[in-house]
Here is the input.
Amino acid sequence: MKTRGFRFGVNCATTSGREWLETARRAEGLGYATFIAQDHFGNQLAPLTSLVAAGTVTSRLRLATIVLDNDFRHPAAVAKEAATVDLLTNGRLELGLGAGWLQSDYDKTGLPFARPAERLARLAEAIHICKAFFSEEKSVTFAGTYYRLNQLEAVPRPVQQPRPPIMIGGRQRRMLALAGREADIVSISLLDRRGPGLPEPPTFEQKLAWVREAAGPRFDDLELHVNAAVVAVGDNRRATVEEAATRTGRTPAEVLASPGTLAGSVEAIVEQLHARREQYGVSYYVVHARVMDAFAAVIARV
Here is the structure.
């Protein structure tokens, strides 16, 4: 796999418009590459409209959804809104799409939480529709099991050509295989279920192998992403790792070995980044806004 340069994003979850815009400005000033909106029915702004607002106060920062839940919107609406966001931000959208996973989102809204195979099949059709909408010059017609489109006008046109990059991710084999076949950016999730009576979750190496197998010759063209869930720059490394171990039911050694952990001095974290890029090919990390200032010292070094 070819060696990619590192990219870093900031994930901001807030309902304050002022905080959202100030965080976007600061992220761009600190050298982050992307600004992230999640998609849950919780304590956060709606993703696509908030990304447009972030685009008005920045000029270079790319704007990403990690990731839109396919069950919340019809893919025709997603495609049109995504193309609109890309147009209004002068070609800065990165469109993350997912099948949905957080049970509470469905409980709050009354949306049916279908079995995984159905949610995955619906997502596969949605990805096809979005790609067709971005690339077709006039209209999109599609007849699938879950969605049907009849000469849907493919407007507006996105600025990015041939289309905005698409991120797909997950932690199970079928989802990661879909990502390997269809995505430009593959997000390998570390949100594995652990506990008594549950099977041992797949290793990161196994997940990566599923992506590689499904991608085939296009694997070298994929960008690999991980959410850095445990970040400790400087002296609070031990306390942060121990807290994460207690919270997730892992040992501190397991937390430290995870590709989602970046902990230690600036120099130590830089070494971790290079080692994991060499071992796994991961070059794109997203950190939470609460650690973005401390982590900026790492960005300055790489």
